[in-house]
Amino acid sequence: MKISTYCGRPFPEDNLRLIRQIIDAEDRPNRAEISRRVCRGLQWLRPDGRLKDMSCRVALLRMHREGVIRLPPPVKGNANGHRGKRITHRSDPGLPVTDGAGKLPALRLELVCGQQSSSLWNEYIHRYHYLGYQPLPGAQLRYLIMSADQVLGALGFGAAAWKTAPRDQWIGWTPEQRKSNLHLVVNNARFLILPWVTSRNLASKVLARAARRLAADWELRYSYRPVLLETFVQKDRFAGTCYKAANWTYLGDTKGRGKLDVRHENAVPIKAVFVYPLVPNCKNQLAQ
Predict the structure, then answer these.
(1) pLDDT in tens, the chain (288 residues)
(2) What's the pTM value of the predicted model, to 2 decimals?
(3) How far is CA 147 from CA 101, 105, 156, 204, 227, in A?
């Protein structure tokens, strides 16, 4: 019997029965409470022991859309597709920035914390990033790139890809090791330099700064330190020059099939895979 997999976790039939029982409980829990109960019932936890709630919500929503389960209607409507899409004057184009990165005053990364900076990050990504805004999966950190009081861009880090051949071959881990240690890999899912910012070497300088501080920021929020960064650069749009300049390692290309391409058709653009080790022995740690 085929076992369905969602968000990198297999769900055998007894798991699905438990999920349906939780949904049909007498107190009629909402979607958020269903997710929490499923995490507790299946012991779906982060390395620090907290519930893996965001991954569970994504998995449940996919099951619902495929007809595997039937979730109750969302309490406040489904805002996921609209959150972050409101355009305000806050993200209007600013003054041109043409000085080289070394001459920019008070260049820094500001960690996104709180609703105001979160909505601003979302708005910039929606308005100016070619992929638009989508919630980052799983554990995540977001940064605004600042010079003095001016926003120059945005960075976002989230959960790693479940499988990608160039990375997995480079690490040399088994499927069991990948399942156990994938949380130690963090994906640079969004990188935006705003269109009116043409500062020489800014992108590579920002990537270098992010690599130096991300492990500590991640540990402060999630109680463990990642050991490897990854990213995917769409080859028909970008050359990955800033990643190369920041000493990221090019590993090869994706096959362009996407997550749901069971017919092995070229459904999505080819992407170059880059990685950046955060510790010298990252391969050994990941292949334990």
Answers:
(1) 678 888 878 899 999 999 999 999 988 999 999 999 999 999 998 877 888 888 898 889 989 988 899 999 987 654 444 454 678 999 999 999 999 999 999 999 999 998 999 999 999 999 999 999 888 877 899 999 999 999 999 999 999 998 999 999 999 999 999 988 999 999 999 999 999 999 999 999 999 999 999 999 999 988 899 999 999 999 999 999 999 999 999 999 998 765 444 455 556 889 999 999 999 999 999 998
(2) 0.77
(3) 10, 6, 18, 15, 28
CATH assignment of 89-286, given 3.30.160.20, 3.40.630.10, 3.40.630.30, 3.90.1300.10? Answer: 3.40.630.30
Can you tell me whether residue 142 is helix, strand or coil? strand
Kindly list the domain boundaries of the chain, sorted by start residue: 4-65, 89-286
**Residue partners of 116: CB distance under 8 A and separation at least 6:** none
